[in-house]
Amino acid sequence: MIIVTGSAVVLPDRLDEALAVGIAHSVRSRSEPGCLNHNCHVDAEDENRIVFVEYWADMAALQAHFAVPESSAFVRQMTALAVAPPKIQLFQAQEIPMG
């Protein structure tokens, strides 16, 4: 499984717009093959920081997601609303059963 975390600190007067863009992107992304989860959150310690957490079945699914034109459009939109370039990190993970 591939886990993606991303974040952007947005301009305070553009927070509502950034949340709408982020939520729409998450909803659309969840319909893509290999997307296990994709959510948009507001940082509890910084109300102007939006955090994205994504789970993808594998790297091929994530690369397909990055190739979708809407994904590029999302990055451009979020960058325009942010005070600095958004950050993204990729992790390869394996679930560890509890018990």
What do these coordinates show?
The chain is an alpha+beta fold and 99 residues long. The protein has a single domain, classed as 2-Layer Sandwich (Alpha-Beta Plaits), CATH 3.30.70.100. The chain has three helices and four strands, in the order βαββααβ. The chain has a four-stranded antiparallel beta sheet. Helix 1 packs antiparallel against helix 3. The mean pLDDT is 97.
Q: Examine the coordinates and then state which fold CATH places here, giving the name of the CATH topology.
A: Alpha-Beta Plaits
Q: Please indicate the count of domains.
A: 1
Strand content: 25-35%
Describe the main β-sheet briefly: 4 strands, antiparallel
**Global Rg:** 14 Å
Which range best describes the helical content: under 10%, 10-25%, 25-40%, 40-55%, 55-70% or over 70%? Answer: 25-40%
Strand order of the biggest β-sheet:
2-3-1-4
Overall pLDDT, averaged? 97
Distance between the termini: 21 Å
CATH class: Alpha Beta
Helix segment tally: 3
| H-E string | EHEEHHE
**General form:** globular
Judged by helices, strands and strand pairing, the structural class is: alpha+beta
CATH 2nd-level architecture: 2-Layer Sandwich
**Strand elements, count:** 4
Poorly predicted runs? none
Layout of helices and strands:
Blueprint: E1 2-9, H1 15-29, E2 35-43, E3 46-56, H2 59-67, H3 69-81, E4 87-92
What's a concise summary of this model?
With 99 residues, this protein is an alpha+beta fold. 37% of the residues lie in helices and 34% in strands. The protein has one domain: 2-Layer Sandwich (Alpha-Beta Plaits), CATH 3.30.70.100.
